[in-house]
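U., I forgot to send this yesterday:
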Amino acid sequence: MHTHCGFPVKAAQDMSFGFDVSSGDVVHWITDIGWMMGPWMILGSTILGASILMYDGAPDYPDINQIWKLTQKHNINVLGLSPTFIRSIMSSNETSVETHDLSSLHSIGSTGEPWNPAPWQWLFETVCKKSIPIINYSGGTEISGGILMGNPLLPIKPGSFPGPCPGIAADVVNENGESIENQVGELIIRAPWIGMSRGFFANNARYIDTYWSRWKNIWAHGDWAEKKSDGHWYILGRSDDTINISGKRLGPAEVESILVSSNQVQEAAAIGIPNYTKGNELICFCVLSQQSQITHKIKDELQSIIIKELGKPLKPHEIFFVPDLPKTRNGKIMRRVLRDAYLQKSTMSYESLVNPHIIEIIKNLRKN
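Result:
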């Protein structure tokens, strides 16, 4: 539940300070009204006097360059997209960014999932021409916007956040709730902020248990994060997505970055499933690039890359090749849905997925 004031003011504040949105700008974000980024874009933009480009359709239809055509035709100034979208188009031979005039852009926003180095670099060099900032943005519906974000005035690193959003007392803590630096810990907030959700409808006990029960007077957001000594922050994924193999904690993004570093792999997702001896075992799902064909050789190569980077104890138990990964309409990969489908669990609705047909394919992998 949100108050009438909190959500729109927080949205406008983040858009202004993070993305430099001002009166007269045109804003377009690849999202939908069913996710918080839809209302966030509408409320924040209108408060600041900016225009919103609404587009009913897929960002890669009728062809893969549709988003660049829209940017050129409507002089978009702030464009929001996801790492998954960039991964899906960067490997296509039909992508032709250079033939479109993108000079109207002054900021590119990204939210929903962590970046892998290769797609971030492709976006920065090919689309941004090393001059337009990629503003990383991470928060949630319950925040009314961001906890961490970039800023056009601050230096950026691939996949990083230069710091917390204005008014957010963010920190990274260990299991005892103590601040840590240069270590992976829980992302938390130490003080109230404008836009803070006031509860879950008709279920205040669940709200308290979800966010406030772990440490006294501290909001635990459920993300793994790391705060570096140089001031940059990194989000490493949901803490409930963590894979624990023989006591070694592994974030899905660590594995997925290694897999997509191969030019054979367009997208990847990693999950942990129960193992009596090791706690978890690693299962990987890969969407191959257009020019690649499924072979045992590719699987062996990917196994070898992971062993080289992470060590033999973290070798995947299985690598599957699939036509797609379960995603929301804004392109966010749903690892929890992926894990439940693979384990033959029916614990949630798949209505929020843009590709619910993929669930049966995932379920059949284990049957076979």
